[in-house]
Amino acid sequence: MTERVATGARRPYLIVNPRSGGGKVSRFRIAERARAFGAQVFLIDHSLPQDLATVARRAVDDGADLLGVAGGDGTQALVAEVAAESGLPFVVVPVGTRNHFAMDLGLDRKDPSAALEALTDGVELRVDLGYAGERAFVNNVSFGAYAALVQDPAYRADKIGTMVRILPEFLARHKGPELVVRTGLLTVDRPDAVLVSNNPYQIDDPAGLDRRAQLDSGLLGVLAARAETPAETAARVRSGQMHGLTRLATSDDVVIHADAPFVPVGLDGEAVTLRTPVRCRISPRTLRVWVPRHRPRVARTGWRPPGWAVIQRAASLVGRSQGHHTD
Hints:
The protein contains 9 helices and 17 strands. With 327 residues, the chain is an alpha+beta fold. The strands form 2 sheets. Strands 1, 2, 3, 4, 5, 6, 7, 9, 10, 14 and 17 form an 11-stranded mixed beta sheet that branches.
């Protein structure tokens, strides 16, 4: 990603989720430090219903010239969409649990307050923004098995445990709407799990996914997994394909069809419901992200988005089980 010097914002506005990341906001004194940098701070009150996109738009109407979020990826996406449509710069303060977007921006997740240095000593990166229907996403949008995980109330407290509990039953019974994925000339029928990402994930092996190599390629990444019988797996191996997995990068829209008017979706890890068909698209270099000039730029190896290796293993196990039942 190319960088250019970011000129100081006069009226930065930071939306802060005090619950995000298990207390990181108070531990790193995010609100106090943001105010010291000259930012107006809006603390989310979870006892009240609040539309954060409306909060951000109101801030823009009141003269804010930069929007920022101290929160998880789902909150980041809501405000990033407003920043993009307003043409304003955006600051990411990684106080969430995983902070996938911040990680691919090279931010210091061990000290989230360091991201605030972008307000006075920063550079601007132009990055892509994904859309599922009218909803923006900074990381990915998921359907089928993975979306079912996100919808489960226990997922946030115990992600791996929830995967182990839900996935085998989901894949064995094919619960939920039947999906069809169409992009360009490709059609994937009845996948059990689909993930569409804002820029493709690097893939080092068929067992999982690495990080995104860049955030400004103008491409969507597509992964679709399907449970298979042993015979189907053998046929794929003979043809040189990875069993049960379709993957590609495309600048075309990716359309998710279903035999239901609405489908559960995981949008940057948040559980939502969208009307079908869901059209996913990429908006190239539409988001102006300010990051500190001095930041870790951690090595881009060894990380995998949660759930996909588990989904593939569960699909394989279910496939073998289905094969035993039919023999």
